[in-house]
Write a structure and sequence with these properties.
- The chain is mostly beta strands and 558 residues long.
- Strands 2, 3, 4, 5, 6, 9 and 10 form a 7-stranded antiparallel β-sheet that branches. Strands 22, 25, 26, 28, 29, 30 and 33 form a 7-stranded mixed β-sheet that branches.
Length: 558
Amino acid sequence: IVAPFFADVDTRNPASDVVTYGSTTFDGRPAFCALWAHVGVGFYNQRADRLNSFQLLLVDRSNTGAGNFDIVFNYDQILWDTGDASGGVSAVAGYSNGGASSFQLPGSAVNDAFLDSSANGLIRRSVNSDHLGRYVFPVRNGIVQTPPAVSTEPGDLTADAGSPAELTAAATGTPNPAVQWQMSTDGGESFADIDGATSPVLRFTPTAADDGNRYRARFTNDVGEATTRAATLTVRNTRPVVTAEPDDVTAVAGATAHFAAAADGIPAPTVQWQVSTDGGSSFHDIDGATDSTLDVVADPASNGNRYRARFGNGVGDPAETRAAVLTVNTAPAIIAQPDDLTVVEGHEAHFTVAASGRPEPIVEWQVSTDGGASYVNVPGATAPALTFTAAPGDDGNRYRAVFSNAAGSATSSAATLTVQSAPVVTAQPADIVAAPGDEASFSAAASGFPAPTVQWEVDSGDGFISVEGATALTLTVDATAAADGNRYRAIFRNRAGEATSAAATLVVQSAPSVTDQPADAFAPPGAEASFSATPGGYPAPTVQWQVNAGEGFANIAG
């Protein structure tokens, strides 16, 4: 959408012009023109007591590239900016492609901003043109180009000599404008580029000689330029500079620790001592500590505290000394106990312990193999961490650490080691031959800690699958024809691993038996005689008829 004046235009009143459009030329180039002009157009609802006159041109600029054109808004008279249909919302002027490429003239949707009576009305401004009331927006390669427009002005700056300072400016425009900061040393009569100052933020360290200098940013792109206001720099007195740092102090608990610091500055700085109880991450003021020296009582709780002096005189940021560390000599105190540990045999067992104390205590690990009745030192175990490979014989051992320094000793609590072992099959299931209808029972066993669970599996020819509910050491199944040849195995599992038994095969079979005997038959010579018999047994037996002609039974061929 391209809208030179998006509002409640209403041309139904006879005193209002109608909207006209057609082809024309502009600066010698073909153009499409839409005209809300001549005497002007009215506003809803059929109002013509105030009229607006404006024009839209789409100018062919294929001389700069295929498909290029200019959008031109011309404003001659703007006396109204809203009608009865818009609910009091004022007119908007600009363009949008329904996506990221959109622009509204400053004053859009602001009551009275576009009117001729406004100091910044549409007829009193221009874009890319020396003609007031004319706004030209080049469209090149499908992108609407707009000249830079300053959106953030740099403010006047008061800074301390030798302290970092910065000025910020920003501008809109398409394509994105480049920036170049400039400086004037003659009160704004002339400006010169500052080498390398091509970022929206100008950072520099002023000196006393820079007092009164003026700084501005010049934004440029392919269709224009814009320059910010000139910001004035005022350089103040010198900020505090630390001349004497406090030293680290080591003191016996209950003694007095003495810190001292000094700083210069104009005007003379005041001092505030601060303390950190978190290793220097944060500091807070010490009430009443406003002299150049600080005395504190060395308490075990204050060991490791850091103390610094903060000097300020209202010029720049306060100056801070180094943080001096207070060391308080104390007997060892356990601050992290070793935890009970469960590991798998062959894996690492890792115990850790920590203790405070000054001077730093040494550590000696000890082990008890009799439930804690007695302890002996672990050879070479003199670090806060004890690591070794757990063996089954270590199960139930207890481990503790003894810390000592010149001020005393402390013993940690005892941590118990539990060593787990992966399952090992100790009894394999055996193959079973059973008659149909009998029960077949397979048994297996395994060692391991903790005691492993068991799950039986069966392979009926398509791979092993779990037997539902088969979680006992013995598996009992019915010997059926369908089960013949099935293979069964047990899977033992615990937290340390798993083990699989050998596969045992179930063979289902029974000896042949005669369930229906053949009956005697009588037949005349030359006639057929038929005999029948029904066998039993698994697998199904074969049959061979025999005959006894007086010399014993012999097979009948076929």
